[in-house]
Each structure stands twice: as structure tokens, then as C-alpha cells.
Design goal:
UDP N-Acetylglucosamine Acyltransferase, domain 1, 427 residues, 9-stranded mixed beta sheet, alpha/beta, Spore Coat Polysaccharide Biosynthesis Protein SpsA, Chain A
């Protein structure tokens, strides 16, 4: 089956809701869980499912993503696998940027023609989940569907920004509404009792709806026909139109899934990984999440108090207190640092003695966190330099606060990539 399937991963738009994390990188390249990138999740799901013809569509701030893909996903010449990045490009047919998910696929159809495939698996590049795609592909083929839309049961109180569908008992989609806000419409799309009875995790506490996960399986011919139109987005335009002419089915997914579309979602998804048994478990022998092999030394932790913390490779942490934190690769925390609810992304390089002497002469803090710092409810991007005696706690700072590389978004402090926070700064 895998030889007849290609996967197309959406690299996302500008990622404005994740700014400033997306100021210098696209969403799929945002670091995750101390050592990964968001894009590693859909690619790993593909590889674990036997799908190794993968195309990644991007257009904004792609340099770090290109570098990560090139240094991570190198296949042997016998398996025929590839992860190919397709950035928006000017051609004789047009010079527009991608206008939406469907338009992105349309502009790249000519790149797929050299591959023998019957089905297209459309995925998002900014979601955290683990799925066996062979299951949705098998259901798609057995049901005779033209399109299968993966859906997850979501309580009515958590449906904001999601496309909803109504399905028949055989899971054929009878109605699809993109991001409804009218309570009456939402109530009318609630999961029928006959469908709830089929679910493993049935709910009686609150009404639920089937929400689209932005994961689709298209028959090749159906996709090519659908993209002959001017539709730019799958959820808003393509799916509702096809509902009247093609056989659309839902594949119900009943496991952990998180759309990492906002700063708050990113922050909470990372910190949730520090729980004893997290919803998303990287410690899965049969379904590993792949990433770049960096050959870093083991982390060095001296005289610290650590509780519910993930520590990446190559870190040096001394005389520090850490509670519920994700500490990324090559992070340095100096004496007296106190961190609580912090996602620290680390650094791309180790500083040498020569670098540190230059920093001292020029009055610039070394990369990492200085002595006697207190930081709570914060995201510290890569390469940040935080001086001594710094206090960063969002407190009453309003969303939108921005000053010298420090931001407040969704009640969370963000220290921007390569930002410099001088000694004695208090926010």
C-alpha cells in the first residue's frame, strides 16, 4: 500500500499566532520537547506507517527548516524514500504565493507526476499526535470513499476555530461546516447517540462534535478534479463542494491530538510532556519520533533541585531549582537560577572561552541564563542571553507587551531568539 501513497505536509502560513517564535522560522521548524522540531511529528508518523514518499510545502522563513530536513532525513537508495521540500516558486503558470492549503497542493501537482500513486495523504505540519496512517488508508479503501477526513470528538466548549461534521452510522459525512460560531448550528452538529455508542471513549458529561483534524486522504483523480477549480482551502471550500458530488467519509481518531497553533497551545503542550504519564509519550519503542542526530555529550547537572523536568542533550545546569520545565539542547543555567513552568529551547552552538572573553569585554551576557535569575511562565527561544539577577514573571503585564526582545503573549513571557537581556532586568 505504501508504494501507492504520497504524503503532503502543509508548512503553514506566516504563523502570526505563534509570533515571535515564528519571527525567524516557519511553524514546522519551531523546536519541541527539548530536542525535536514540530515537523518531526508528521514525518515520523508517516515513516512509522510505511509511507516514505513525503512532500513538505513551505513558503515563509524556510532556511532553518531546510537545514533540519537535509541533516535529518537521509534515506538509503534502495528504499526509494524521500522528504522533499517544495517552497512557493514563480513559474510560467503563475507567480503567486500559496493562497491556502488547496492552492499550495495545486501549485505543486506537477512535482508529483513522476511518482506512481493512487492516494494522497494531506497532513498539517504543526500538530502533536501519533497516528497509524495505515488504518485511515485501509478504511478509505474499504469504504470506497473518494475523500476521507480524519476527525476527533471534541466537547462543545472547546470547538473554537475547528471545522465540524455530521456523519451517518456508516461514517459517511452528511454535513460539513467550517469553523461555525452559531450555538444553534453547533448544537445541530452534535454527535448522534448511535455514533457515540460506537466510540471507545464515549461521553455523557458534555455534548461533543466531530472536528476535522486537517488530515485528509484523497483519491488521486478526485484531488486532481477538485483542484481544477479556483478553491484555495480544503476545509473552507474543497470539502463542502465535494460533499455534494463525491463520497466523503470520516475516520474517527480517539487519541491525543493538539493543534500547536498558538503560543498558549505550544507552551501547554510542552509542559504537559513533563507529567509522569503525559498524553503524548515520546517513550514509545514501536513508534519512535525521529529527529536530527547531533552527537552531543550527555547533560551535566550539579547540585540541583529538579522536579518534573525534561533536559535535552549537552546541557550544563549548576546549583539551580527547576520545576515543570523543558530544557532544550546546549542550555546553560548558572548558579542560583530558579525556573518554574519554563520552556527553554537552548542553543545551536557551545560558546568557547574566546567567545566568553569577548562577551565580557563588550558587556554582553553569555548564552543561557545567568546567576540568581528567577523566571516563571516563560518561553526562552534559542540563543537567548539572559544576564545575572534577572527576574521575568508575566504578572500583570498585558498581552502585546514588547520591549527589547521580551514579549508577553497569552499571559506567557517570551524571550526572543538571540535576544539579549541585561543584568538586573525585571519584567
Amino acid at each position: 500500500m505504501e508504494k501507492k501513497v504520497i504524503a503532503v505536509i502543509m508548512g503553514g502560513g506566516r504563523g502570526s499566532r505563534l509570533h515571535p517564535l515564528t519571527k525567524e522560522r516557519c511553524k514546522p521548524a519551531v523546536p519541541l520537547a527539548g530536542k525535536y522540531r514540530l515537523v518531526d511529528i508528521p514525518i515520523s508518523n508517516c515513516l512509522n506507517s510505511g509511507v516514505n514518499k513525503i512532500y513538505l510545502l513551505t513558503q515563509f522563513n524556510t532556511a532553518s527548516l531546510h537545514r533540519h530536513i537535509q541533516e535529518t532525513y537521509r534515506f538509503d537508495p534502495f528504499g526509494g524514500g524521500t522528504v522533499e521540500i517544495l517552497s512557493a516558486e514563480q513559474t510560467e503558470a503563475g507567480d503567486n504565493w500559496y493562497q491556502g492549503t488547496a492552492d499550495a497542493v495545486r501549485q505543486n501537482l506537477h512535482h508529483f507526476t513522476s511518482t506512481d500513486y493512487d492516494h494522497v495523504l494531506i497532513l498539517s505540519g504543526d500538530q502533536l499526535y501519533r497516528m497509524d496512517f495505515q488504518k485511515i488508508l485501509s478504511q478509505h479503501i474499504e469504504s470506497g470513499a473518494d475523500v476521507t477526513v480524519s476527525a476527533i470528538p471534541v466537547p462543545v466548549s472547546q470547538l473554537e476555530g475547528l471545522g465540524l461534521m455530521r456523519v451517518k452510522d456508516n461514517l459517511e459525512i452528511s454535513e460539513f461546516v467550517e469553523k461555525p460560531t452559531d450555538p444553534a448550528v453547533i448544537d445541530g452538529l452534535a454527535i448522534a447517540d448511535s455514533i457515540e455508542a460506537q466510540l471507545q471513549n464515549s461521553s455523557s458529561d458534555e455534548k461533543r462534535c466531530l472536528a476535522s483534524m486537517g488530515i485528509y486522504v484523497f483519491n488521486r483523480r478526485t484531488m486532481e478534479e477538485a483542484l481544477k477549480s479556483s478553491a484555495t482551502d480544503f476545509g473552507k471550500e474543497v470539502i463542502p463542494v465535494l460533499l455534494n458530488t463525491k463520497k466523503l467519509y470520516s475516520y474517527i481518531f480517539e487519541d491525543y491530538w493538539e493543534d500547536i497553533g498558538t503560543v498558549k497551545a505550544f507552551f501547554e503542550a510542552n509542559l504537559q510532556l513533563t507529567d509522569p504519564v503525559p498524553h503524548f509519550n515520546f517513550f514509545s519503542q514501536g513508534n519512535p519520533i525521529y529527529s536530527r542526530a547531533r552527537y552531543l555529550p550527555a547533560s551535566k547537572i550539579n547540585r540541583c533541585s529538579i522536579n518534573h523536568v525534561i533536559v535535552g542533550d549537552g546541557c550544563m545546569i549548576t546549583d539551580s531549582y527547576l520545576k515543570r520545565c523543558v530544557i532544550g539542547i546546549r542550555s546553560v543555567l548558572r548558579e542560583g537560577a530558579r525556573l518554574e513552568n519554563v520552556v527553554m529551547m537552548g542553543a545551536d552552538v557551545f560558546e568557547s572561552d574566546k567567545d566568553r572573553k569577548w562577551n565580557e569585554v563588550n558587556g554582553i551576557p553569555d548564552i543561557g541564563i545567568g546567576m540568581n535569575c528567577e523566571i516563571k511562565n516563560a518561553i526562552i527561544d534559542k540563543g537567548a542571553r539572559i544576564g545575572h539577577n534577572v527576574k521575568l514573571i508575566p504578572g500583570g503585564k498585558l498581552d502585546g507587551y514588547s520591549k527589547e526582545g521580551i514579549f508577553v503573549r497569552d499571559g506567557i513571557i517570551l524571550v526572543g531568539k538571540n535576544a539579549v537581556v541585561p543584568d538586573n532586568t525585571i519584567v
